[in-house]
Specification:
The complex is a heterodimer of chains A (about 425) and B (about 150). Chain A has about 425 residues and is of the alpha/beta class. Chain A has two domains: about 5-50 and about 315-420, Alpha-Beta Complex (Aspartate Aminotransferase, domain 1); about 55-310, Type I PLP-dependent aspartate aminotransferase-like (Major domain) (Aspartate Aminotransferase, domain 2, 3-Layer(aba) Sandwich). In chain A, about 40% of the residues lie in helices and about 15% in strands. In chain A, helix 1 (about 5-20) runs antiparallel to helix 12, helix 5 runs parallel beside helix 6 (about 145-155) and helix 13 packs across helix 15 (about 405-420). Chain B has about 150 residues and is α+β, with helices and mostly antiparallel strands. Chain B has one domain (about 5-145): Sufe protein. Chain: A (Alpha-Beta Complex), CATH 3.90.1010.10. Chain B has helices at about 10-15, 65-80, 85-95, 105-110, 125-140; strands at about 30-35, 40-50, 55-60, 145-150. A four-stranded mixed sheet of chain B has the order 3-2-1-4, with helices on one face. In chain B, helix 1 packs across helix 2 (about 65-80), helix 2 (about 65-80) runs parallel beside helix 5 (about 125-140) and helix 3 (about 85-95) packs antiparallel against helix 5. Chain B is globular. The chains are: A alpha/beta (about 425), B alpha+beta (about 150). Chains A and B meet through helix 13 of A and helix 1 and helix 2 of B. The complex binds pyridoxal-5'-phosphate. Pyridoxal-5'-phosphate binds near residues 140, 217 and 240 of chain A.
Chain lengths: ~425, ~150
């Protein structure tokens, strides 16, 4: 098998694997050592959710065993300790994405809630009748539906930048659609269905030239490449901890302080106020204005530990390794009879979406499961992408820093078995 | 859970590759669509009735091996049956694939349909196996409304 692949691809992959010490990383993820149907687990569904290292799980236990209390509320010792770890996690996360000021990081349940927050606050205030929101044809439903709901309410219009048959955004169309009427550009940084890495620098520069703010859906970028929101000059950035080797039910919205300041609050309740009387309520300052109620403190602490973990490896090295793994996987997949890759953009991250002539994605996933290989099949919450490529569903293997060359080989063996069963 | 070889019986693979009665029925008395929005499966079941008897039944569309073969086998067992017989078969089929994997299968009542007994081990595939049957049910209860697995 390997001999048919480009030897420089293999050399580079092995070099990058050594640079991040994949074996050591794998040892931190207990689940990767488990077996399924007597076969070692080959987990290739990382775009759906990633696995969690011991260090992050330990941080949750440590929090509940030694630090648990409500935050920002008590004079007692534990409340102080909990508040300290909570706020120091916020600062770590701010630094991780280049935000520098903690108050620009709002904790949410995930990417979905972060986008809804912007739609319901910034959107309601600034996007009215005749105004436009620009998204692309490759968005996840979570970057489509909140805008449709907003437009329904305010009379705004959702405009969609088309994609080509490689899964690249057609930038000439972006240029045409971006106009004086555009009030927000909301674009996926890395497509979960296709792996396309969008030219976000260019998108942000062009939008800013017309004074239009940009939201990036970073669900698939945060754990796979260095992200620097200040260097990008992006206005909003959303991501989910569970796709970054962190806990579920946790995510962030980064927003420029100047924008967040003038946005109305999202939810009302405790913590988000300075004072309440029945006549008048004064809202709290950033970021608390957007964090009503007792937050997911353990989740925030765990996300802080996740960021520490990623920093010890280095996002540059992670990106380089995953790129080498993607090259290897792309070559390997193309050698399997009847495989058609969906998503062949110029600039891609570790997503291999494909169909097979012999079998429907659902059946591919079923046979792969016999081999212990976990992939996702379906529309990946991106039905417009499926419609563009004229398929009902795809099979998708999505990569993470702990995946290996041997795991790609196991995927290929399993796909050859699919061809045998459905011959 | 067992290996999916238990699911992909030879008969199922055969009907998947060479679906029977796989065509449009022009001017059919009833045509009902069935969707599974989660995996994109989409079939239309067409049928003609003479009084209470199903004189012709065909299907078209696309989906996974389980949904397609189930639709195909369904058309082969239903031709010539009465409404009541068809509905009774659906009930028995449904009961079989949702039963405990160790429960005995009533071979006599189910006939060919028993090749789908493996679905009992894979509950997520129940929707695949019953998609065409739900469309049929809608046609026979004569509301002819499109059916979706997600309602
Ligand atoms: C590109 C993209 N955006 C948004 C989301 C939604 O993330 P979450 O479900 O964590 O809110 C996902 C998750 O699948 C995604 O891949």
């Amino acid at each position: 098998m390997a001999s048919q692949k480009d030897s420089t691809t293999i050399d580079r992959l092995d070099e990058c694997a050594q640079a991040i010490n994949v074996a050591k990383i794998r040892a931190d993820f207990p689940i990767l050592g488990t077996a399924h149907r007597g076969k070692p687990l080959v987990y290739l569904d990382n775009a759906a959710t990633s696995q969690t290292p011991r260090q992050v799980v330990d941080s949750i236990q440590d929090y509940y065993y030694t630090k648990n209390a409500n935050v920002h509320r008590g004079v007692h010792h534990l409340s102080q300790v909990a508040t300290d770890v909570y706020e120091s996690s916020r600062n770590k996360i701010a630094q991780f994405i280049g935000a520098h000021v903690g108050c620009e990081i709002i904790f949410t349940k995930g990417t979905t809630e972060a986008i809804n927050l912007v739609a319901q606050t910034y959107g309601r205030k600034h996007i009215g009748k005749g105004d436009e929101i620009l998204v692309s044809h490759m968005e996840h439903h979570s970057n489509i539906v909140p805008w449709q709901m907003l437009c329904e309410e305010t009379g705004g219009t959702l405009k969609v930048v088309p994609i080509d048959d490689h899964g690249d955004m057609i930038m000439e169309e972006f240029d045409t659609l971006l106009s004086e009427r555009t009030k927000l550009v909301s674009i996926v940084h890395v497509s979960n269905a296709l792996g396309t890495v969008n030219p976000v620098e260019e998108i942000i520069e062009k939008a800013h030239a017309l004074g239009v703010p940009v939201l990036l859906d970073g669900a698939q970028s945060a754990a796979h490449m260095p992200v620097d929101v200040k260097a990008l000059d992006v206005d909003f950035y959303a991501c989910s901890a569970h796709k970054m080797y962190g806990p579920t039910g946790m995510g962030i919205l980064y927003g420029k302080a100047t924008l967040l300041e003038e946005m109305p609050p999202f939810h009302g309740g405790g913590d988000m106020i300075l004072s309440v009387t029945f006549e008048k309520t004064v809202f709290n300052t950033l970021p608390y204005k957007f964090e009503a109620g007792t937050p997911h403190i353990a989740g925030v602490v765990a996300l802080g530990a996740t960021v520490d973990y990623l920093n010890t490896i280095g996002m540059d090295k992670i990106a380089a390794y995953e790129a080498a793994l993607l090259d290897y996987g792309t070559q390997a997949l193309q050698q399997v009879e009847g495989v058609k890759l969906i998503g062949t953009a110029k600039n891609k991250a570790g997503v291999l979406s494909f169909t097979m002539e012999s079998a429907h994605p659902h059946d591919i996933g079923q046979i792969l499961d016999d081999h212990g290989v976990a992939i996702r099949t379906g529309h990946h919450c991106a039905q417009p992408v499926m419609q563009h490529f004229g398929v009902a569903a795809t099979a998708r293997a999505s990569l993470a820093m702990y995946n290996t060359r041997e795991e790609i080989d196991a995927l290929i063996v399993a796909l050859e078995d699919v061809n045998k069963v459905f011959a | 859970m067992s290996d999916s070889r238990a699911l992909y019986e030879q008969v199922i693979l055969d009907h998947n590759k060479k679906p029977r009665n796989f065509k449009k029925l022009e001017g059919a008395d009833h045509s009902v669509e069935g969707f599974n929005p989660l995996c994109g499966d989409h079939f239309t079941v067409h049928l003609n009735l003479d009084g209470d008897t199903l004189t012709e039944i065909t299907f078209e569309g696309s989906g996974c091996a389980i949904s397609k073969s189930s639709a195909s086998v369904m058309t082969t067992v239903l031709k010539g049956k009465t409404r009541a017989e068809a509905e009774a078969l659906f009930e028995q089929f449904h009961a079989m694939i949702t039963a405990d994997p160790d429960a005995p299968v009533d071979d006599e009542a189910l006939g060919k349909l028993r090749v789908f007994a493996g679905v009992r081990e894979f509950p997520v595939r129940i929707k695949c196996a019953t998609l065409a049957w739900h469309a049929l049910h809608s046609a026979l209860t004569s509301d002819d409304n499109a059916v979706s697995t997600e309602e």
